Amino acid sequence: MKQRICFGLHPLSLPRLAVIAFCLWTGHTHAQLGNRTVVKFNLSGIIIKSYTAQYERVLAPNSTITVSASYSPNAPLPFKQALLDQYGDNQDARRAIETTLFTKRIATLEYRFYPAGHAPHGWYIAPFVRYANMDVSNDYTYRSQDGRLHQAHLEAGFNAGGAGVLLGYQFLLGKRLGLDLWLLGPFYGTNVKAVFNGTDPYWQTLTNSDITRMKSDIDNTKLPLYSVQSSFKLPLITANLDGPYYGVRAFGLALAYSF
């Protein structure tokens, strides 16, 4: 008489195997992700009086979410020296460049994709959105026909939002420390309408010809993608700046600490 031998699984063993498989899978995933939180401070921004802190959280082996906040108190124009080299022969332009100051508050949210699947390490592509609140001040100078130097201190504030894509590379120096390199991140956003207001203390000495020339001088200010329109209700001088919020996040270097 032949005896049949059957190999099989008891029905109650299937849930146990599922639990074991799940534990193995989650353990493997956590091993891949390693430290899931990274906090950073932008070192390169200190040069231009821009201070940025960033928080990055790993979502999966190839993705993270990042939030950053930036503050720039009374910062000079970016590439100020390059502008002075180009326009420094014009004394009015030199004074405008040297007296322009920005106070900026910026919040940025980005999703990072790490193609190699080793987040938060390696090359990444990061679509981002950002919100900016900015105060700007500038001394507008003009020499009237009688030889007097007129100087109006202009101030404006505006809000803007934009979106872009950042390419970067983040690498770890050990178990905790690392560096985050922001290579190139152009962005484009909402329309900016900034109204600059200032007063001329010597406005009573201006002739109609002086006022006409001042208005033409302000209205013909050349800013890429922006238009400028001025109005005079002396002693008040108003300049309206209208154009898109755009720029580039580039060549930033942040010190990172992961845990």
Mean pLDDT: 85
What is the ordering of alpha helices and beta strands?
A: HEEEHHEEEEHEE
* Shape category: elongated
What share of residues are in beta strands?
A: over 45%
Number of beta strands: 9
Termini distance? Answer: 67 Å
Please bin the fraction of helical residues.
Answer: 10-25%
What are the segments in which pLDDT stays under 50 over at least 5 consecutive residues?
A: 1-14, 17-33
Sheet with most strands: strand arrangement: 1-2-3-4-5-6-7-9
CA radius of gyration is 29 Å
Main sheet properties: 8 strands, antiparallel, barrel
Structural class: alpha+beta
- Total of DSSP H or I helical runs spanning 4+ residues: 4
What report would you give on this structure?
This protein is an alpha+beta fold and 259 residues long. Helices cover 19% and strands 55% of the residues. The protein has four helices and nine strands. It has helices spanning 13-33, 80-87, 91-99, 208-219, and strands spanning 37-42, 51-60, 63-76, 101-113, 122-143, 149-172, 177-199, 227-233, 236-258. It has an eight-stranded antiparallel beta barrel. A hairpin with an 8-residue loop joins β4 (101-113) and β5 (122-143). α2 (80-87) packs antiparallel against α3 (91-99). It is elongated. The model is unreliable at 1-14 and 17-33 (pLDDT under 50).
